[in-house]
Amino acid sequence: MDTVSQPAAPVIAQPAAPTPSGPAALPAPPSIHVRAAITWLAIFPLVAIGMMASAPLTENWHPVFRAMGLTMVVVPTAVYLVLPRLFAIHGFLAGRRGTRR
């Protein structure tokens, strides 16, 4: 009698759960208030600079179109370039503050 054996299912190792006190412990995310302040710190200068830079080009545009054009540049710049750096700086500073205690 011929028996056909099924191939064994691959064993997938589960990652160990990080322990709160171990080296793999992640820092607590910043509070909603800190995130709002960091976001404002990113957005305000970009909007101010963008308004001054685009004023000569968009002076005859309807305000809605001026806002749309400005946000099409400011939002991606903030989300992909500025905010990750600001949050990294905040994480670094928060980590240093945590190790001093």
Short structural description:
With 101 residues, this protein is mainly α. The chain has helices spanning 32-58, 63-100.
Structural summary, described in words:
The structure is a single chain. The model has no long low-confidence stretch (mean pLDDT 85). The protein has helices at residues 32-58, 63-100. The chain has a domain at 32-100. α1 (32-58) runs antiparallel to α2. The radius of gyration is 25 Å and the shape is flat. It is built from two helices and no strands. By secondary structure, the protein is an all-alpha fold.
SSE map:
Elements: H1 32-58, H2 63-100
**Unreliable runs, pLDDT <50, ≥5 residues?**
none
Number of strands: 0
Beta-strand residue fraction: under 5%
Using only C-alpha atoms, the radius of gyration works out to: 25 Å
Query: What is the helix/strand order?
Result: HH
Largest sheet: none
What is the SS-derived class?
mainly alpha
Distance between the termini: 72 Å
Number of helices: 2
Percent helix range? 55-70%
Task: Return the average pLDDT rounded to an integer.
Answer: 85
Give the overall shape. flat
